[in-house]
Amino acid sequence: MVELVLGSVVSLWLLFGLITGITLAVIVVVAVLFSRDLNRGITTMISETIFPGFGGKRDQFLGNLEKELKRRGLIPRVPLDKEADLIYRDFFNEVKIHVTQEGTALRFGYRISAATGAVTLGVLLLIPFVIGSVALFTLAILRRNNTQLTLNEAGQAAEILSREV
Q1: In principle, which of 34, 46, 54, 86 could form an S-S bond with 97, CB 3.0–4.6 Å?
Q2: What is the arithmetic mean of pLDDT over 45-57?
Q3: What is the pLDDT of residues 130-157, one digit of tens each?
Q4: What is the DSSP annotation of 32-91?
């Protein structure tokens, strides 16, 4: 009875490992293929806040925002292109900050994307893991099935040989 329970647990573990590896590979491929911001990395967060009554203070707000970010250790730069007012980059993230005047209000927003280098490194590190885990669990399942078949055949042969004596 113990063999039945252990065999089922091992089979489920091997099958779980194989399915997990394949599922992980599919999720990563789908996430990368359907990313809206693939040329700049994968967008992980978009946020906007409206500050009523600050419509005429855009430049003052940007200056104070830059000072506050520097004070907190994030050193933004003014981008060369005008798709954002400020930009911050590190190895893992790229943040585009924009501030626009909307009537008497000020809209402050940012988009955080995973940096291309980090995404590339993550995929490169993930590929051998996924391929290796799928290969390992496939080999383990094949080896287990082969061992089980061999044991059953040996048992049947032993039973036949035991009858003849």
Answers
A1: 86
A2: 89
A3: 788 788 888 888 888 888 888 888 888 8
A4: HHT-TTTBTB-EEEEEEEEEET-TT-HHHHHHHHHHHHHHTT---B--SSTT-SEEEE-S
pLDDT for 21 beyond 80: no
Q: Rg for the chain (alpha carbons), in Å?
A: 29
pTM for this model (two decimals)? 0.58
Q: For domain 43-118, give its CATH number from 3.30.310.80, 3.20.20.70, 3.40.50.2300, 3.90.660.10.
A: 3.30.310.80
